[in-house]
Amino acid sequence: MTTAPRPIPWIRRRGHAGLLVAALVLVATLWLLGAVLALLPEPIGNNAAQFAAGARMTLWLTLAAGTIGLMLGTLAALGRSSERAGPRAVAGAYLWIIRGTPLLVQILFFYFALPVLVPGWNLPDFAAAVVALAINVGAYNAEAIRAGLIAVPHSQRDAARALGMRPLQVQAHVVFPQAIRVALPPLANNVVALLKDSSLAFAIGVVELTNVGNRVQAATFQPLPTLAATACIYLLLTTWLTQAAGALEEHWDAPGRQSGHG
Predict the structure, then answer these.
(1) Looking at residue 158, what is its pLDDT?
(2) What confidence score (pLDDT) does residue 262 get?
(3) Whether 139 contacts 73, CB under 8 Å
(4) 11-255 belongs to which homologous superfamily?
(5) How many CB atoms lie within 10 A of CB 171?
């Protein structure tokens, strides 16, 4: 009779290493991007600093909106899963409105229309873009997180309550650690989509990557190399995000894989 193999500690270390490598790659990419682009012929080389700044702005939009959107998605998922009719109705209305209207219209609404409805509420272009992007991605995150919550058996909640755990402790220590593993792949896809959707912020004047590419091609009358360079930078950023998401997923899965060895 063979004994069960012992847990493999390197799995957790590999998850940590993947996150560290992803962070280092991002720092190196942002640091070297301008220098690498400067080596290219016109119109890219002489506008390398603008492209690098646009890429950083795109990344800031993604990280800021993604962080807020994760919190909004969690609240909406809890609302949809609530036993009370009020939170379910509010969360349902939020998802219905946001998922049923175009993101570009939402961005324009928060920048142009909201100050009309709320006098004195004048958001800068960056803040308006972050708010609109966060509210939009939060609606899609909500369904992913809700699917993760549903995947956790109710028997585990009942067992945790029987052990004397409070509702908040049950959510924090029993439900969410398991739900996040189910929700992480679609959440990662939402973040990658968010990075690409952030290009719509150019409509309100945010000088992100697409805005920079459009300005350069309009000034130089060379759309092919300019837009090709813009697309390549987006591809570089989305590839980094995908790899970082993979490392994060591996990190979160590590305890589950270890416990599976018994």
Answers:
(1) 75
(2) 38
(3) yes
(4) MetI-like (1.10.3720.10)
(5) 18
pLDDT of residue 187: 94
Q: In whole angstroms, give the CA distance from residue 28 to residue 243.
A: 15
Angle of helix 48-80 relative to helix 223-259, nearest 10 degrees, comes to 40
Measured CA to CA, the distance from residue 52 to residue 92 in angstroms comes to 40
Round to whole Å and give the CA distance between 193 and 62.
9
Tokens of 191: 């973040």
Segment-wise mean pLDDT, segments of 10 residues, the chain, 262 residues = 36 55 73 87 94 96 97 95 91 97 98 90 94 98 93 80 80 81 92 97 97 97 96 94 83 48 40
What pTM does this model have?
0.85
Question: Long-range pairs for 183-188 at CB < 8 Å and ≥24 separation?
Answer: 183/144, 183/145, 183/147, 183/148, 184/245, 184/248, 184/249, 184/252, 185/249, 186/143, 186/144, 186/147, 187/70, 187/73, 187/141, 187/144, 187/145, 188/241, 188/242, 188/245, 188/246, 188/248, 188/249
Positive/negative CA dihedral, 102, 229, 127, 79:
positive
Place of tokens 């960056």: 126
Per-residue tokens: 88: 């379910």
Please name which of 180, 179, 184 lies closest in space to residue 244, comparing C-alpha atoms: 184
pLDDT number for residue 18: 62
The domains of the chain are located at 11-255
